[in-house]
Amino acid sequence: MPQMHQKQPISAGIVVVAAGRGERAGASFEGPKQYRSIGGKPVIAHTLEMFRRWPSTTHIVVVIHPDDETLFANALSFVEDGADISTVHGGATRQQSVLAGLRALRGKDVTDVLIHDAVRPFFDLALLERIAEALSAGTPAVLPAIPVADTLKRSDENGAVVDTVPRTRLYAAQTPQSFKYNKILAAHEDAAAARKTDFTDDAAIAEWAGIPVKIVDGSVDNVKLTVKRDIAMADERLSLTALPDVRTGNGYDVHQLVPGDGVTLCGVFIPHDQTLKGHSDADVALHALTDALLATCGAGDIGDHFPPSDPQWKGAPSRIFIEHAAKIVRERGGTIMNADVSLIAEAPKVGPHRDEMRAKLSEFLGITIDRCSVKATTNETIGFVGRREGIAAIATATVVYRSL
Fold first, then answer.
1. Do residues 173 and 307 both lie within one domain?
2. Are residues 314 and 271 in the same domain?
3. Is residue 206 part of a domain?
4. Site annotation (Transition state stabilizer): which residues (predicted)?
5. Which parts are annotated binding residues?
6. Neighbouring C-alpha atoms within 13 Å toward the C-beta of 4
7. CA 175 to CA 139: how far, in whole Å?
8. Helix (H, G, I), strand (E, B), or coil: what is residue 63?
9. Could you tell me which of 382, 290, 271, 296 has the C-alpha nearest to residue 341?
10. Which of 9, 89, 185, 188 counts the highest number of beta carbons within 10 A?
11. What is the pLDDT of residues 306-320, one digit of tens each?
């Protein structure tokens, strides 16, 4: 039998190529096309925001033109949590600019790198997850591409058709083109040393260096903004007249209290003279929030994905469930905007642990802590909660889905 690669988590460095002048887009007071405004913010800001939302992103390097420092600083002001995005100056060609970006990632402990055109703002998290799946399986180079749909013709120097090119197994390449970091850096260094400057993309350099390149499904929306009309159409697509696809999900859960040494709530263990009874770690807060997230995209509930009858989940930490739900949301084009959990319990006291709980939610969901809320109340000694027989949780999640 063939040996299967064990999947490994990736630590992704991102190189965004933004040093071009974009002459085909025409002159504009806004500067090169990567700084033109679409949907109220610069093109490159949309691109950077998407990488910011991807949990596997560890470092982002943007390769800019030396003349564009002010333009980039303005664009970065539109990006939430963009302070740690670094820049490096590009070279005379795209190939030289990419090499500068790759060199800037040295010492950053990245295992893989995604190289992306700044003027492709309409890629999505689902595409990034397909790339990550291939990289984590050990694929050294991954190329997102879509099959060529148009009939292709070859002409002579006078523009006369010579023949029709069969389009079977022909693909249109996209970015981010993605690689094992050390392999593509070495290939770029070798190409520079050999004075090879005729490569049209990074996958071509990998091919030249003998690195196998695997195609994964690209996205028809992942278009490159090249001419002025492309930018106008992108702005129209992101027009504020379109209704945002904002969805809210609710979740409720309750677990019985039994004698024990403590409870786990929002991923935080709190010493107590009781514990929560359940098949997993019985984290009632994360269970309710998992249901709330799944509800935003009609993906069922926690029991559909993690049946209590399955022995593999016995004693499992509930962060597995919440991270799974967040991954489903992102694969379906959603951006988690906030998470709110209300705990209903007579004891233990939640207040002293609230900030740690919020930090855990921020970690599990990949969002900033100011978007995570944890509240608690008692049941005024009424009912099963009031009798300290159980703890209940109500959760609400708000997700914005990308309209196609």
1. no
2. yes
3. yes
4. 24, 33, 279, 378
5. 253-255, 279-280, 287, 301-303, 377-380, 384, 387
6. 3
7. 16
8. strand
9. 290
10. 188
11. 888 888 888 899 999
